[in-house]
Structure prediction request, 506 residues.
Amino acid sequence: MKWGAALSDTSGAPLSISTSARHSTARTVGFVLGVSVTTVGLAMLIPAAVSFLTGEPETAVGILGAAAISVAAGSLAAITSGRPSSIGMKDGFAAVGLTWFALTAAGALPYLMTGTIPGLADAIFETASGFTTTGASILPDPSALPTGIALWRGLTQWLGGMGVIVLSVAILPVLGVGGVQLARAESPGVAPERITPRFRETAKRLWLLYAALTVVLIVLLAVGEMDVLEAVVHAFATVSTGGFGTEPTSVAGFSPYTQWVITLFMFLAGANFALHYRALRNPGVYASNAEFRLYSWITLGAVAIVAGGLLAELGIGRAFADATFTVVSILTTTGFATADFGAWRPALQVVIVGLMFFGGMAGSTSGSVKTYRIGILGKAARAELSHFLSPRRMTNVSFGGKTVPEPIVESVQSFFLFYMVIFMTGTFLLGFIDANISEELDLVTSASAVATALGNVGPGLGAVGPTSNFGELPDLGKWLLSGLMIVGRLELFPVLVLFTPTLWRR
Prediction:
């Protein structure tokens, strides 16, 4: 259907273009939102069943109540909206942006209905952190959670890892080619890579790979000292680059074997999953992929810098282990910790904060700016410098031996500009909230909290460092950071366009 085409209702009366467009967007949003919330509600049955089996009937009843509400509300929204005949780009942006907020509200119900997190702001914060795979927590001791809630907490990250929207596309044939629009809306700036001609089939295969990596990691962790629940939760958090664990000390209390296994899988999860799929047949694609090479070099360079800074204090073995784990964890935005990097020397803390603005590869489960954007920004800066020195010389931006079209370069530059503006605005707002309610948040805490929320990293510095939590922040601050987590997870634009009149007018 073209936007300029005349439409009519069932009685033959013509409809205005703007009215029909709004109806199409509302229908798409309602249906996608309804199906997604229903899917999340059904997922709650898993931790409810585990609660029953582990002798936690009260927790199970609370989770079942949350599941019933989610399924009922989601089904009602999907049925009353009806199946959309097609999904345009604008519809996709609206559906993705609003659906993630709805999923956060639904996902908070198990915490609220079991009383494990009674405060609304806290429950929303924990859920937003889960679905966006941020890993920031308000809980001082996750080990005190009932088994079912601990599993639900990890499951929110696993579901959010590859995107609940992509999961819905994979199981909803009715969306057809519209699924591409949803995926583009979820990760704007780079077209989703297909490994099969049909996007739905691509999504299914990537989810199978995602699930397979999770199962392998569960087995490897269970072979170590973790029990089944610990292995499952940490595997969910690692493959999704989420960072929710079961202990207040993150993974610092586990053996070196466990820490190195998690390090490897964090690195894999920070790489493009389509690249992993292609590597099953041809491992050489890793070496030939420019973004993977840059991702690897950034990792190695950061490890060398951090290990060098820790060498005199910890010795070569421990310095290398702590540096590798911390760099991979922060770079991939997983957020696990084996050391309190908030206590490191300031120069190393600057490196850690800088890594929060990098992220893994496009097509991975990590957050933040992403490696391909960093690469293009660097090449664009170099080209601009060359043009400044030689104005008559035409310099193209290339990445991986291929010329990057000017619209892509401009898109990447615009994204980074928006990202930094949101970071600075968020830091100002969090500081403003602090100043007006007499909390004691310093600039380091405020800035790192916003950076870690927007980048979906997890721990920050200062009062929200790896050995602390976000529980002491004011409720307004938690609402702000929850919103920033979702904005960062959806790479800014699907949420920002919700506030543009054009989206709803046409």
Notes: Residues 14-417 form one domain. The two ends are 14 Å apart (CA to CA). The chain has one domain: 14-417.
